[in-house]
Protein 1
Amino acid sequence: MTDPMRDQIRSLIATIVQDASEPIPFEDVQAMTPARRSGRGPLLAAAVFVAVVVVVGVVALLRPPADTGPVVADPTTTTITTDSGPVVESGGLMTGSVRVGEVPAGLILETWEAAFWSGSIVSFGPGADWAGPGLRPQLTVQTRPRIGQPPLDPAQVRDRLQAAHGTVTELTVRGRPGFLVENPERTNGWTVALLVLESAELASEVQAAGLDPTDVVAAAQSLSSVDADIARQDAIDEIGWDLRILAAPDDAETYRQRLLQVDGVEQVTFRTPWFGRDLYFDASSESPPTTTSAGSQTENTVLAFEFVDALVSLEDGTDVETVAVAITELGDNPRVGFSPAIAMSQTLAFLDQLLEGAELVHDDPPIYQPLPAAGPDFDTSALGVDVPLHPATADDDISERIVEAILSPPGVRLVQREEMAGPFFHLGRLDDGSRLFAAFGGTHPEYFVWHHTESGSSTGTGSLAFYGYGVTGASSGPDGTHIFIAVPLNTAVYTYELTGARYQQQPVGGQGVLPIAAHSGIVTAYDQDGNVLGTWQR
Amino acid sequence: MGEMDRRTADVTGSEVTSDAELYRQHAPELVRFAAMLVGDDAEDVVASAFARCMSAEGWSEVENHRAYLFRAATNEARTLQRSAASRRLREQRLAADGVVEVGVPRPEVWEAVESLSIRQRAVVYLTYWHDMSDVMVAELLGIGPGSVRRHLARARDKLRKVLHD
């Protein structure tokens, strides 16, 4: 059939390409070429896939602090491991299966934190509506690609865990080094984790050993839709997508089609939870394990989860946040992340907003006090106990000791000065003397918050407000525990509720902090007229 | 031959091609392709894409260099467009303060193309200029034939409005 537009379009193209310039001389292109990256050559040249993947399986059993002693994880029933599978031509899934002693059916994907270059953390739980009884189960699987890198030294891993958590018991799990970690000091209650340093060939090894898969406790398989060329093509992988979606839909392909229907979505590609450049496998190296649908439970109590990890490209000019919201509203509890480039762009835009009208309250290093959003024009007396955030002024008492604490935050490594994308911000001072500061930076844009009093400092991190709202973090220290909260920038006041207690605060820069020893609760944000902007529960 | 001008095995493994030869072989058509995507920045996009490819660890293992380069150029164009959009936004913001003048008029024909996304431009160019089938375009750009058809349909919708105005 003749295309009536063909001649017009060809004419249009001709107009453009006839003016195309000559290519730049090759010698000049050579001068632009950075040094070749090292370390992965042998792997790529051999086109093999045997990788040392550090797979960390974590079962975190959350409960309020109690005097009944730590939860003890049984290594034979709580190990979580993942394995990796072949690169295939069509879309695939990453599938994780786990057998845990007392896990109720119906766990859903709850959180996803992507440390884009260093692995992913995926957590399953019973969802916000869960009401017990017993301990709230949470399953967290953390994966870290180790391809092309030497195997980790178990002794070093043990020492690091010991330094971070205190109690570490060395185990041997299926002949591999493992560690039982107990950390009762975590703000979310007792945490028991079992970490096993696994290899990538777990599934085949299990099969070869003739073991019953249900006794193996866990196996996972990842398939990717990319071909080998793309899998190892840094130039494309690093910049060819805008949003990363993790979801646990009933049917992956149907979900992809629904994503494609969202206005502004140009392309959706399933990926492994790691970048293809770091992880690709021989199609014959593994066979997919038997799985069940997300959240279902089999007779032998093996729970299986399927989730898709999709990279989404947007049409140019599309508002990325609008698309992110639309995808969230599709259902299936997706986790939406921005590409590093977009995240940095968002961060800079957020910085611009914070700096608008901000007052310089300290010169070296520069510390700005952002303006608070317009306060409420309605009666807030019924919203609970007011916990004001006091702004700093130029003649405020941000002492050198506080500045020193900002520059050398204790305990947790926060952002390094040279990595910062902008100045420090003093968001407010609580009546207990603690202060909330923020800085932007790091390898990926993040929002660091910590509080400080003259008697000591403690640290915590929160999320950029546009990444998600509600309770975004908690910190503990000699002065007790604070929680951090993010709300929309136009929030006039927010409330925080936990076990019957209710507090209110005017946020600054979309952030709030409360001297509450908790890590969960219900946050409700109101605009100036008292309209509810949103409610978030954690 | 420079250090980066490596010899590379081709798809059959029986011949070798240097980076310089690859560049001479593909750069002209890539520049025309990139002109469709980014206009006057075409040669820079191609040079950047090629430089990026040469520095990529898997470059020597790539079997289809042409497809690889087309994809790299497309992504380089998308990056350029994003940074250009950000720059325009900042310049507009500064212009509001009376600092910078913006608003250089563009030829009408370019405005028609500007209404398309980078990937839509790529699909239109390869389909109409090179008479490639959707399968061939898909293979070259590393996307599915369905995506190609969708991009083409959306591009035609947009161009129809402009071309008929």
Protein 2
Amino acid sequence: MTETYKPEWVPEKDDDKFACRVMYGVKGGHEGMPGSNVDLSRKSAPVIKRSKMTVDDYVEGIIKGDRMTLSRAITLIESNATAHFYIAQQVIQRLLPYTGKSTRVGITGVPGAGKSTFIEALGNRLCAEGHRVAVLAVDPSSTVTKGSILGDKTRMETLSRQKNAFIRPSPSGGTLGGLTRKSRETLLLCEAAGYDTILVETVGVGQSETTVRSMVDFFLYVVITGAGDELQGMKKGVMELADAVLINKADGDNKRRAMVTRAEYARILQFLRPATEKWETRAYTCSSVTGAGIPELWNEVIMKFFSQGKENGVLSERREHQTLSWVYSMVEEHLHNLFYRSPSVLACKDKIETDVVEGKLPPTIAVQKLIAEYAKTEIGDYIKDTSPFAIK
Amino acid sequence: MKAKIMFLQEVRNSVDDFAEREGRRPRIMLANFGFAENNHDITETATVLADMGFDVDMEPWGRTYIDVAQDALDNDVHVIGINSIKGEYKSLVVKLLEELASYDREDIMLVISGHIEAHNIKEMYELGVSVVLVDNCYEKFAKGILSGLETILF
């Protein structure tokens, strides 16, 4: 037993009336005390320059499967700086032969539908089966302040500890190829680094799910109960892009309602054209907390989709189609950049903006004026000088 | 109030300037060594920094320094922010710096973004922390981070 003593304030004559005893404190070996094993000798923060990496470093590191190189290469891909763009494209070009072998799954749903928790449950399972899983989670950037809060990892607590899992949250902000180019190329990098299952997570608000649809093989739409009636689902949009609809949070009290919701979605899906040829989009339930339904979803739905798709050639057709659409979406983004970075547009933008705000100029005429200004630029020279896509 | 907004705009401008040269926004990861899932202090720091134009990575709670270093490398952040870790901060700071050094990534800055007692600040700098948030003055904090990154990156 630890040695204790009576506190000094206990009156001597009432000794046995007080049960209070005090333990002796720690004598050493604790933090900040003599005998501590932590070396506190380090003085002032050292300034250490970030090491520079060449194209060869990136390519070799990624083929070896080095996580740190992969993460730095993704940074390079995501960079909006034109100088980084050239290096990134060289890296991609050299890694292309190593890509294309993975299972690409896109996951979308409204905020709070439980996408990240679902990925945590699914990813852990896949890792346990010996798969190498990469998770690319795109979170929106603020359009006002341009900053972002990337919180997907907070839900993937155990998955982020797995040696076989790589989770990369990315802000959606910034252009120069935009989300499409960046996520696609990030996906390719992960494939080259040897990850055989890639999960792309995105918040289903607006454009992002269409973008993700155009780069994955299987697209999963995660929904929850109590989100409107049949008609809501029949509205055109994400429902017709999905290869499976998953009703999450089917556990405890919510299980019954989840079953009802599943039946409702199943009814709607009967009327919709499936997103993939020769594949029937259906609704399923699962619980990310208890894990119920997740193995069935993976083995009997997603895996079946892939084996069937490989057999009848739908998958390879889809990938070919995606590569082509990638080219044109890059053209669109590039034109967008050309316009907004064009010096003649920038020069007259402020004036036109104030005129429109003050009501002197109708918006339609303002558009005409801006386009006219843009057309005045020597586009050929301009592209040659500033465009990252120009052939040098 | 107006002066405060001006200040914020000034910080945003320098963040934008940084983003222009670096190709991305300054990215900070707020480590959560504590045992509360929804730590109000971390939420506050995160929103303030995001409002200034930073990309802010949130971490699950109850992480070890090994997890934090690995996450920082995976996300390729510029800065790791430690928020209010009370008693055990000295060992954590030292261990985290050692862990980063073992990956040869000492260019990742370490900052303290939470409650810290005044008499500990000097010691923090001596341990290798680059910036400490003092008196909740986020403007100074952000500027400290940016000027630190300036010497590391460019």
